[in-house]
Amino acid sequence: MARDTGPRIAIGVDPEGRLPLPWLAPALARSAALAGAHALLIHGPAGVGHLEFSLLLAQAALCEATGAATAGRPCGRCASCHLVAQRSHPDLRLVLPAALRVQLEWTEDDDYLAPKGEAKPSREIRVDQIRMAIDWSQQTSGRGRGKVLLLHPADAMNGPSANALLKTLEEPPGAMRLLLTSADPERLLPTVRSRCQRLQLDLPAPAEALAWLQAQGLDDAAPLLAAAGGSPLEALAWAQEGLSATWLAALPRRVAAGDAVPLVGRALPRVIELLLKLAHDAQVLAAGGQPRFFTAGQVPAAADLIALRDWQRALLRAARHDEHPWNAGLLVESLVTQAAAVWPRKPAQPAARGGASLHSDA
Ligand SMILES: [Zn+2]
Fold first, then answer.
1. What are the pLDDT digits (tens) for 108-126?
2. Each residue's pLDDT tens digit, 224-235
3. Chain-wide mean pLDDT for the chain?
């Protein structure tokens, strides 16, 4: 099933029984052994498809076909599977941070989207959302096959939210399953982690990821896939933002030259992510290793290690505050200016024989 352009996500298997993301099949098969777990923590690297996978599990748990859910697979055809795919199953509740709810256009229950006096939708799962979900969990199941409460990502719960959930997590009412997702389980309260059984998702092998990206209409995806840390979903999102292999290949040298133009106007979290990856690769390269996100030929050598360390600190500071940039454009300019100090310009070389200029504006 192709992902639409934009932020929509594919939900559940289609009527032919195809998975929305093919690399989720092995984990789905393993999930059958955990069907009795009341609370499941679904974890794995960012961009692996935590939400898509959890929705598959929810669909499987609520599937009404007899003898269905073979190897954990929902049938995709019964009324319940259809309701899950339509985002309208009465026994499935998805709790998302308001900001993500807006991004995914998951707009039911918008009564708590933006509480009064708040300028922007929250990136946290708030305690009132948890309380409403607990109230919901105590009502009778609409279709009589239990309920599924899905928290995505569970590490977006703040302290009060996590504490409000603990009792329900320990003793879910009736036949309710709790599904929690996290790309970084260490960020969860230990008391939350310890009450869940775990199921790990893995990124597909590069060949499988590239085949999938090609099926989405993306050619020359290998550089995007590498820069996205191996996540095909991320690589696709980058392509949809207009990032190309050529653009990525040129980025390190432009940043090293203090040129912020390629980055200005792009979403700040994405810019910071790219610069952090470049800084990572510069550090690995300086230590004699192979870059991970860019290729060795793209990352300028001979970084000044002290300036690099300062730059990384500035980037991490910016990453912590990317919700409240005082001025995103100026911040990007300043971060790129600082990058130029990491790769100080060498004194001009004598002109090549024949006087041909090697200077490039690319
Ligand atoms: Zn079904």
1. 554 455 555 566 788 899 9
2. 999 999 999 999
3. 88
Distance (Å, rounded) from C-alpha 198 to C-alpha 288? 37
Q: What is the pLDDT of residues 267-299, one digit of tens each?
A: 898 999 999 999 999 999 999 999 999 998 999
In angstroms, rounded to a whole number, what is the distance separating the alpha carbons of residues 182 and 51? Answer: 10
* Contacts for 236 with CB less than 8 Å, ≥ 6 apart: 3, 213, 216, 218
∠ CA 234-240-243, nearest 5°, is: 80
C-alpha of residue 68 to centroid of ligand 1, in Å: 7
**3-state DSSP assignment of residue 93:** strand
Task: Give 122 Cα–ligand 1 centroid separation in angstroms.
Answer: 34
pLDDT at residue 220, rounded to an integer: 87
pTM given for the model: 0.85
Encoded tokens for 297: 């030929």
Distance 13 CA to ligand 1 centre (A): 9
Q: Average pLDDT in the 103-109 region?
A: 72
pLDDT tens-digit map of 253-271 = 999 999 999 999 898 989 9
Q: Give the DSSP letter of residue 157.
A: B
CA distance 264 to 266: 6
Strand order, beta sheet including 147-151: 92-95, 147-151, 176-182, 39-43, 197-200
**Cα–Cα dist 353/190, whole Å:** 66
Number of C-beta neighbours around residue 183 at 10 A: 16
Query: Which pLDDT score, from 0 to 100, does residue 105 have?
Result: 81
Evaluate the CA torsion angle 118, 105, 147, 90 in order and state its sign: positive
Question: How many Å lie between the centroid of ligand 1 and the Cα of residue 51?
Answer: 19
Radius of gyration of the chain (CA): 23
Taking alpha carbons only, the member of 212, 189, 161 closest to residue 49 is 212
* Ion ligand 1, residues whose Cβ is below 5 A away: 63, 65, 74-75, 78, 81
157 beta partners: 125
Do residues 114 and 98 touch, judged by C-beta distance below 8 A?
yes
